[in-house]
Amino acid sequence: MANMRFKAIETAYNRSTISVPAPSEKVADYYGSYTFNDDVMKTLLTPEAYLKVSNAIKSGSRIDREIADEVAAAMKAWATSKGATHYTHWFQPLTGGTAEKHDAFFDVTPSGKAIEKFKGSALVQQEPDASSFPSGGLRATFEARGYTGWDPSSPAFLMDNGAGGKTLCIPSVFISYTGEALDYKTPILRALHVLDKAATAVMYYFDRNVEKVTATLGAEQEYFLVDKALFYARPDLVMSGRTVFGHSPAKGQQLEDHYFGSIPPRVNAFMVDFEYEAWKLGIPVRTRHNEVAPGQFECAPTFEELNLAIDHNALLMDLMNKVAERHNYKVLFHEKPFAGINGSGKHNNWSMMTDTGVNLLAPSTKPKETLRFLTFLMNVVKAVHDHADLLRASIASAGNEYRLGANEAPPAIVSIFLGDELIRLLETLENRGEVQLEKGDNVFYKLGITRTPPLMRDNTDRNRTSPFAFTGNKFEYRAVGGSANSASPMIILNTIVANQLQEFRKELEARLELGEKKELAIVDILKDYYRESKKILFQGNGYSDDWVQEAAKRGLTNIASTPLALGKYIDPSAVQVLEKMGVLNEREVHARYEIELENYIKKVQIESRVIGDLALNHVVSTAVKYQHQLAQTAKSLMELELVEEAQPLKELIKEISQRVYIIKQAVEAMTEARKKANNTDDIPTRAELYGSEVKDYFEKIRYEVDKLELLIDDEDWPLVKYREMLFVK
What we know:
Family: Belongs to the glutamine synthetase family.
InterPro entries: Gln-synt_C, Gln_synt_N, Gln_synth/guanido_kin_cat_dom, Gln_synth_cat_dom, Gln_synth_gly_rich_site, GS_Type-3, GSIII_N
Distance between the termini: 24 Å
Strand content: 5-15%
Organism: Runella rosea
Shape: globular
CATH superfamily of the largest domain: Glutamine synthetase/guanido kinase, catalytic domain
Number of helices: 25
Number of strands: 19
GO molecular function: glutamine synthetase activity
Protein name: Glutamine synthetase type III
Number of domains: 3
CATH topology of the largest domain: Creatine Kinase, Chain A, domain 2
């Protein structure tokens, strides 16, 4: 095994940078060239068909079958002209990845001739077998069929298969035979619809020209790059996506010299190649840089409509994996692939935009716009305050359990950072927020609130420890895990904000019916919201132990356990709001809860098996062999009457024996705990047993193994070490 390690190291260190020829065109010339975008539709569709598709994209209106036939013909012509041979409905089942079933663009006639074929029926709907996708009980064996349906609001695109052919990918929803959502896209589309209606209704009080409000998202993606040879020499990385063993190197990230440093040439070549492929697919990747941990990097896109941004992030992760192969890398999206250094998040930057071009979370110096800004800001704060546990559940996973609360990540406590200027403004509003009306629509607050304080000067983005932070003109949900589908937290966030905006409108309407002035009524409601929600606002260091104690005093929950966090999905209040808003019905909520629990169980189970295998078959066996060598040396020294000189070796032999004994005992106990959990029929109980009794042994075993790594001769150690994986250029 050690030979395998050194061969992998030699291969990795002898890699040369793969040359990536620079595109001859400007980015603007090929950006989106692999997408069936608006310009392509204008060219290939009749005006009538183009108008109907555009209306479907903008308002969700239905596309009739005749128009679908025309769109399908245009898509096929466009795709085949670019080398496509197959098409697929591209969807996002509840596996955490994306799914495809490729069909060729042809059929065979009775005479045996092949003819090109792609009808509107195939564009609009397909029937992939749903039997192997997680359903949480939403389908029976005799109802294994599932349906995928075209989502016109997300453009079809071409995926290069890397072997001379391309596939037309059609973004789609995925539902069960009985109509329930089996994917991420269906509920996110529902959530976006209800948010649009609720926010547009509230905007009626500020601007009656607004007809649509769109949620926007920019998902910053953190990731690690590991040389492919080193990756395959680590069975734990291959099996579980993270290293279950590995002693911290002498130099990790403590100097923070990797952060924003010069990008290594080989990594830069990968990034250039990836960005070129992303731009062809219309993914607006704009930023790339080194992250703080060695071997860690980040890319960030421009903001987009939220549904499209989620599709693009899912596609981006798939694309990164494929491009990395060309550069002999493996991409790690796991939230905590290496102990002792930063893990990876996916910072979800969220806001709301009107069809008149106004960002509803952008502060302003104009009084009327300030009132609008505060209205939407405080409704978001109130929504997060009232449904913090549900928002916490939306980011719970086996991987994120390692990251949340660690040194570089937000704690499991959901809190909101607004910045000192906004807090001062809200305190003043609560305590002395009198309003006087003058001519026109201007609203003036006393005590310096006639204009927004200078919070625009980037002083809202200084607290990197907050899980949910206001960052100037958006909220950034930083607690989302690096491997997550952003749809999961965005379904919840958009739903609870839509619900809160509906409640706000009801309260305001009731006051207006009593004859209150609109501006006075709004201010009074916002004052109440601030008073009710202020305990969730925290401007300090979220990493500190003091905050954990302070949060407990405030009554904020700190749910570190993933099974317990997931349990918040099925709290009556959570089910009620999701069902009331028409985003997920009770069956769908319970199904997702069960799916997430099963996913957690399986991931912890895999890690447990990997730990047992590596500990006994790799580490202990190596330790025993090395111990035998030491014993032979000690014996020789004793025979030479070098008793004192033999003593350190005897102590080393004893220490190895003790650590091997602890490892073997712990692995056996962990296996028994796993058997106990597996024999438990109740899924929530099984998940809790895996999260406590099984997982409790992980660190115990790791501690002993990592100590052995420092004791055993480097030439004999079987696993690629951290220093060898993290610093490859």
